[in-house]
């Protein structure tokens, strides 16, 4: 779920059974992004991190790793340049998706 208000966007994403609830997050360029992250995996650490691409060598944002079940909110600024970026769980890199900036 994505909610947009004047330069800000809120995205709800959950981790459950070692997967994210969405494969794509789309936000406007330069927006303040708030990710409401719900880690539903009991006793399992997860996070949400955004990178320039799938190599995960250049971070845009790295969220705190939290052990479920718990909820946390991350806030950061989206890149100014539209394009296709990449998000993942740093603990479980097979959990990933597209972070699209429009």
Strand content: over 45%
Q: Any idea of the CATH class?
A: Mainly Beta
What CATH calls the topology is: Immunoglobulin-like
One letter per element, helices H and strands E, the order comes to EEEEEEEEEEEE
Tell me the CATH superfamily: Cupredoxins -  blue copper proteins
Rg: 13 Å
List unreliable stretches of 5+ residues.
none
How is the quaternary structure best described? single chain
Spatial gap, N to C terminus: 17 Å
The tally of helices reads 0
What average pLDDT do the residues reach?
A: 95
Structure description:
The protein has 102 residues and is an all-beta fold. The chain has a single domain, classed as Immunoglobulin-like. The strands form three sheets. Strands 1, 2, 3, 5 and 10 form a five-stranded mixed β-sheet that branches. The radius of gyration is 13 Å and the shape is globular.
Brief digest:
This protein is mainly β and 102 residues long. It has strands at residues 2-5, 8-16, 19-20, 24-27, 32-39, 45-46, 49-51, 59-62, 66-67, 70-77, 83-88, 96-101.
């Amino acid at each position: 779920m994505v909610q947009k208000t004047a330069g800000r966007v809120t995205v709800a994403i959950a981790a459950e059974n070692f997967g994210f609830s969405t494969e794509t997050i789309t936000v406007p360029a330069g927006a303040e992004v708030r990710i409401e992250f719900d880690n539903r995996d009991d006793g399992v650490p997860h996070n949400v991190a955004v990178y320039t691409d799938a190599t995960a060598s250049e971070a845009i944002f790295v969220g705190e790793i939290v052990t479920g079940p718990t909820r946390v909110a991350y806030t950061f600024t989206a890149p100014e340049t539209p394009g296709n970026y990449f998000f993942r769980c740093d603990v479980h890199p097979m959990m990933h998706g597209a972070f699209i900036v429009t």
